[in-house]
Amino acid sequence: MNDQTSSRRRFLKSLGLAAAGAATLNVDAAMPMGRGDVRRWDLETDLLIVGSGVAGVSAAIEARRSNIAALMLERQHLPGGSSGISGGVCYLGGGTPLQKALGFEDSVEAMLGYMLAASGPYASTDKIQLYCEQSLEHFDWFVANGVRYAQKYSDEKEISIPDGSLYHCGSERAWPFREQFKPAPRGHVPPSEHLTGGRELMRALLAAADALGARLIVNAEAQRLIVETDGRIAGARIHLDGKVRHVRARRGVVLAAGGFIHDAEMVTTYAPELAACSTPWGRAGDLGIGIRMGIAAGGATLRMHHGFVITPMYPPETILRGIAVNAAGQRFTPEDGYYGMVGHDIAYRQNGRAWMIVDADSAYGWNDFRLPVAAEAADIATLEKMLALPDGALLQTVDYYNRHAEHGRDPLFHKEAKFIAPLQTAPFKAYDLSTHHAFTPAHTFGGLHTDLDARVLDAWNEPIPGLYAAGRSSAGLPVAPYIASGVSIGDGSFFGRRAARHAARA
Known about the structure:
Blueprint: H1 3-14, H2 22-25, H3 27-30, E1 33-34, E2 43-50, H4 54-65, E3 70-74, E4 90-91, H5 97-101, H6 108-119, H7 125-133, H8 135-144, E5 153-154, E6 166-167, H9 177-180, E7 187-188, H10 197-211, E8 215-218, E9 220-227, E10 233-240, E11 243-255, H11 264-270, H12 272-275, E12 279-280, H13 289-296, E13 301-302, E14 307-309, E15 323-325, H14 339-349, E16 355-358, E17 373-377, H15 380-386, H16 393-405, E18 428-432, E19 441-444, E20 447-448, E21 455-457, E22 463-469, H17 487-505
Parallel strand pairs: 1-9, 2-3, 2-11, 3-8, 5-6, 11-22, 12-19
Antiparallel strand pairs: 4-7, 6-7, 9-10, 10-11, 13-20, 14-19, 15-16, 16-18, 17-18, 21-22
């Protein structure tokens, strides 16, 4: 350890960084090495990419198209990251060729308006605007790199046809957004026989990267960045084949190693709402390694408590004729909204507790693993007592809802007409929507603070030379609430590309 490394370590500890989460951040283990401590380079490349999910492979493709060498390191034995087990949906709009071919009109303004309004105060306005403005070019990029889309639209709230590629993947048709911005289907997904669009997406992109000459090494764990005396990132120390190796990165390092949902201590420290969810969602490599390396190198973070919380009640959509109530026995969200926004309301605003009240006509026709039955009764009054709700609260809520539903109205949350029906046919059920009881997938969105070129920024908003981050190692387009399926795939691929292009120019 040289004097520079020792001094930086003392400085970080003096700021209390180690004390802020020593068990999770492990600053000593992730502390950058000084270039002077590297006796020789075992491997060399222009752009070193930590991770092989959609952000990493997109960076690799763009690096090769920019005529610089690219090397991806994958900690697991198979490439693809969490993108490979995702739905493979990419949120694209503004009038893509697929939208037009299927008869849908869309505009950059409508897409931008929805994304900003639905994301709320945490929205990265500059990144969202750039993404929307370049969405058409990004669609063309996917197609040019072998991703196939079928000219078939699904009108369901979740893609459920193996040969479909376009659907409404967010809350565009839910209130209040449908009244503010013209709805359009923006979920673009490769068709797949078993609805495994993520596998098809990554299969195409990995093949494109390989054909372009990008290198991939699996079972390679990046652990520490290597820093020149002037502060520029020079490469990384990795573990490969049981040995420590040093990789030189002439143009820079892209941290694209995923989020931290599988580091339980890290999630508990930064995102307790996500820690309370039943199902951590992502590949086993989502351990926050890239984020830790970036923090130890001086990178700032954003929105570490954010993530998606999915409450997948549908399909079938008939359940949305019921009403979601909180511990006060009151409705709190439009039930027909995107299930990421409903899940957000439960996890972040209702202390993780809620129930879906249905009657015989809107209940599942089977015992569904997603939502356990918390109570069942012949009348609402009994159901209310079984749930230990405040006396008369649920009765009042259901009565108010039914009186208006009989006329096809929902003055409180303005559900779509097809989801409005009075609850009047016994037996009545309460499905448990609580984040710790229901099937509630969760993933992290917080990460390293980056600019429009995916450069990692420090505490003074200055870029760290040679260091980039994309995908869930960064804090990009997705925030809590998660506004639509495919925003994360879109974010990772788009800013992975921008990182490589900037590195090629540097």
